[in-house]
Amino acid sequence: MTRFAAVLTVGALSLATFAAAHTGVKNPAVMARMDGMKATQDGVKVLGAMVKGERSFDAEAARAAAAQIAAEAARTPDLFEAQETDPNSEALPTIWENFADFTAKSNNLETVALALSTSLETEDQLRAGLGQIGAACKACHEVYRE
User: Fold this and answer.
1) Dihedrals φ, ψ of 98, to 5°?
2) Taking 60 as the threshold, does the pLDDT of residue 62 lie above it?
3) C-beta atoms surrounding 48 within 10 Å
4) CB 79 within 8 A of CB 32
5) Distance CA 7, CA 137 (A)
6) The pTM is what?
7) What is the pLDDT of residue 18?
8) pLDDT confidence of 3, banded at 50, 70, 90?
9) Measured on CA atoms in the order 92, 16, 118, 68, is the torsion positive or negative?
10) How far is CA 123 from CA 61, 111, 116, 117, in A?
11) In sequence order, which ranges of the chain are alpha helices (DSSP H)?
12) What is the average pLDDT across 86-108?
């Protein structure tokens, strides 16, 4: 499996897991975090559909999706600042134990997505950028998510 295919597979599994976890959340702060993650995933889905050929390449739409990902990444530390929990949350307590690292990982996603949102012109740039976005998401999820 290529690195790119692995990133798409991880993304698809994350979406399925996220949909199941979102059900039954009662804590409004946790729901706000989940809504932010869903908005990020919506942007990733747009980019992934273009890369997989399920949607025609559209540089403007891809830049908008990358900008959405960047905006959500910028909000993420604020959404997680309060140590709120819910039985259906996948957030691990290590987020608050290593909040500076968590924030750095979120900032990295913001930087990668923002760069893509301002420079994307070709499908090759989209592939490379989506790979970077996937790697940034994975780096955080491996440590801070169940």
Assistant:
1) -130, 50
2) yes
3) 22
4) yes
5) 10
6) 0.85
7) 46
8) low
9) negative
10) 12, 20, 12, 13
11) 3-22, 28-51, 59-80, 94-97, 99-119, 123-144
12) 97
Provide the sign of the torsion angle of the four alpha carbons 14, 75, 135, 7, taken in this order: positive
- 40: tokens are 């990020």
Q: Provide the token pair at 143.
A: 């440590």
Tokens 């900008």 belong to 67
Q: How far apart are CA 88 and CA 135, in angstroms?
A: 25
Q: What number is the average pLDDT over the span 35-63?
A: 97
Residue (of 33, 27, 146, 24) closest to 92 by Cα position? 146
Q: Write out the two tokens for 76.
A: 């993420």
**Which pair of tokens denotes residue 24?**
């039954």
Per-residue H/E/C for 28-56: HHHHHHHHHHHHHHHHHHHHHHHHCCCCC
